[in-house]
Amino acid sequence: MRVLVTGGMGYIGSHTCVQMIEAGMTPIILDNLYNSKSSVLDRIEALTNVRPAFYQGDIRDRAFLDAVFKENDVEAVIHFAGLKAVGESVEKPLEYYDNNVHGSLVLVEAMRAAGVNSLIFSSSATVYGDPASVPITEDFPTSATNPYGRSKLMVEECLTDIQHAYPEMSITLLRYFNPVGSHQSGTMGEDPQGIPNNLMPFISQVAVGRRESLAVFGNDYPTVDGTGVRDYIHVVDLADGHLAALNYKGKDAGLHIYNLGTGNGSSVLEMVDAFSKASGVEVKYHIADRRPGDIAECWADPAKAKAELHWEAKHTVEDMTADTWRWQSTNPSGYPDA
Ligand code: NAD
Ligand code: UFG
């Protein structure tokens, strides 16, 4: 199966390409390298012995998309490309709506023109806002508290209308919980630019000596130890969720929605402890104020994906921390510049 992977050089996209190649699929990568490096391609090739086709360009560039579709007999699209930093989205809403919402619409227009009917979209558990209870099922109400989350919700709503208008299309919305970890080889992983916004990359940069101490954002939440609880999912499990979605729903016209999570929650301090054990390095931390907009706890009910996609997360928190450490300790500055 030939699949166009937008954002395929990024964190989740690159791991998905490896899993796809290993499953005999052909990813065709399209990325503007805004938040990734071209050396990712070398790492994919080193792991799989296959160098995927790579087109450097922007999903908002319709002529570029048309040319990519023309050159390749694409059967389905996995759409990862977008901006993803919550704080930045508050400062730069125009960029987020332009990239995430407008970019997705241009992509779907190009798919329609090329006669490609199968789309998998990277959505997020952020569309559940502050959930009334946990675990979260797909039928929970959706809402957004920041421009990033709103852009994901808007794209979900646009795609719902689009699928309704073009019932031959298969559109799958995958709502990721908290992707962490890296390829087991330690050669691919998360490589945030600047100060990491997310917990795991921050912890691993403290462990490797790039940062002094982790600020734990609040220890007075109504949770097991007062710190925030999230459903951390290994990026390779998440990648496999895309293959399952393609295999089981990619040819099935309709709108399909799935949580991709483990169904287990871990607190910030539990993650710090697990990382210290995995790395043998004591991760320094201090308690800081709550981060505005954070919720106390969030974890998935993944039963629908298990029943319909025959997929479930296999990796443990120990795997996530051990694999992150393997990547961070052998690539302390992330991917090399090409
Ligand atoms: P990432 O930044 O590592 O990857 C995104 C890739 O898209 C990058 O390589 C970037 O260069 C590219 N890109 C951005 N804008 C583009 C454009 N206009 N045209 C072409 N390429 C463009 O992010 P990721 O963590 O791999 O996330 C992938 C997707 O999953 C995103 O849509 C993100 O919102 C979503 N998501 C991520 C998380 C998470 O915690 N990582 C959680 C939920 C959902
Ligand atoms: N945290 C800290 N210190 C840090 C970073 C995070 O204590 O330096 C805490 C947060 O307060 C939270 C937990 O660690 O309790 C996880 O925070 P992340 O920033 O790693 O993840 P979030 O759950 O806030 O959000 C992430 C992505 C969102 C996505 C959401 C659901 O950033 O884009 O997961 O998929 F929508």
Model description:
The chain has 338 residues and is α/β, with parallel strands linked by helices. The chain has a domain at 2-180 and 232-263 and 300-313: 3-Layer(aba) Sandwich (Rossmann fold), CATH 3.40.50. Helix content is 40%, strand content 18%. The strands form 4 sheets. It has a 7-stranded parallel sheet with strand order 3-2-1-4-5-6-11, with helices on both faces. Strands 12-9-14 form a 3-stranded mixed sheet. The radius of gyration is 19 Å and the shape is globular. The relative contact order is 0.15. The model has no long low-confidence stretch (mean pLDDT 97). It binds nicotinamide-adenine-dinucleotide (NAD) and uridine-5'-diphosphate-4-deoxy-4-fluoro-alpha-D-galactose. The site of uridine-5'-diphosphate-4-deoxy-4-fluoro-alpha-D-galactose has 21 residues, from α7 and β8.
